[in-house]
Design a protein that fits this description.
Elements lengths: L3 H10 L5 H8 L21 E4 L2 E3 L2 H11 L6 E5 L5 H10 L4 E6 L2 H13 L5 E5 L12 E6 L8 H5 L1 E13 L2 E9 L5 E9 L9
Parallel strand pairs: 3-4, 3-6, 4-5, 6-7
Antiparallel strand pairs: 1-2, 7-8, 8-9
Bound molecules: S-adenosyl-L-homocysteine.
Amino acid sequence: MRSNLDLIAHLFDAGYADARIAEAMRKVDRAQFVPASLTPNAYIDSPLPIGHGQTISAPGVVALMSKLLDVKAGMTVLEIGSGSGYQAAILAELVGKRGKIITIERIEWLSAAAKSNCERAGYKNIEFIHGDGSKGYAKNAPYSRIIVTAAAREVPKALTAQLAEGGKLVIPVGQPYRQDLLVIDKLAGGVLKTERSIPVVFVPLIEGY
Ligand code: SAH
């Protein structure tokens, strides 16, 4: 794949992205979110290292998670694991100017890098928080959408607690090197309904450090 457009066309053809996700992803050039030395690999559907032992997820996984999250214009979305800021930028496209993304990252250097990547790409509706996202972010709760981009052993209770009724949580849960991508809906009365999507591999969600 030689360009961002080629990459997104591939994600659409492969079924990871639907038309709306593809439109958002076309506006976010992945090359702006990877280290300069890896720019030649930016348009390959593969995770890439971003420093501090962390990775930017494969674009196919980013597309699928964005699709499963079913984000609507104007929503406030909580993301755990800012990493490069790539997923946050795509979510910012999907919620539009009236919506907002709050993204939490435990590694201060990455939080700052994600902020500068997103600002350079022109996004003003993203708030960057340095801290432990496994506790959620009570200040703006409840959230209609929460996305976790690091692998949890179990679904953190704080996140389901901070999910609004009618809300959706997308999170990889399982062992190191092998998780299931879960889609959890909070129904009326607070009942949780869990559906399993595909197997995935994410870096770990570090809790209580
Ligand atoms: N969404 C990112 C990919 C994130 S990789 C992107 O688009 O590039 C997962 C990130 O989760 C890593 O940067 C890691 O440092 C972070 N992380 C792990 N545990 C965390 C925690 N408890 N709170 C916040 N961030 C965490």
